[in-house]
Amino acid sequence: RNMVNRYEGVTLLPELATFDLSEEEKSRLRPFKGTAPIREVSIILNRNFLKQKLVELLYKEITAAIPEGMTSKAHGKIVRFK
Questions:
Q1: Residue 23's pLDDT is what?
Q2: Are residues 54 and 18 in the same domain?
Q3: Which end of the chain is more exposed for a tag (fewer CB within 10 A), N or C?
Q4: Pair 65, 76 in one domain
């Protein structure tokens, strides 16, 4: 981050991380041209997991904390690493 602030480097920031930046820091942001890559988060459970209600509550809390426009895959393109 300090290298970027000194104009000596670049980094990729998740969109959620940009919401808390100062106006000066936001002025240095450069959006992707075209469709931006996105991250996909999955909750993977054992079929016999007994606390299904807990997982459903966790899912609801996570999705409630994310801005509405970011919950759609149309928001960007998932990039596979493997």
A1: 92
A2: no
A3: C
A4: yes
> Do 31 and 21 touch, CB atoms closer than 8 A?
no
Single-letter code of the amino acid located at 77: K
Are residues 10 and 40 both part of a single domain? no
Both tokens assigned to 71 = 């919950």
- How many whole angstroms separate alpha carbon 75 and alpha carbon 71? 8
One pLDDT digit (tens) per residue for the chain, 82 residues: 566 667 777 778 888 888 888 998 888 888 888 888 877 778 888 877 778 888 888 888 988 888 877 777 666 666 666 5
| Nearest one of 12, 22, 16 to 75, comparing CA atoms | 16
Where in the sequence is the domain holding 21, given as residue range(s)? Answer: 1-30
Q: Which residues contact 29 (CB under 8 A, 6 or more apart)?
A: 13, 18, 21
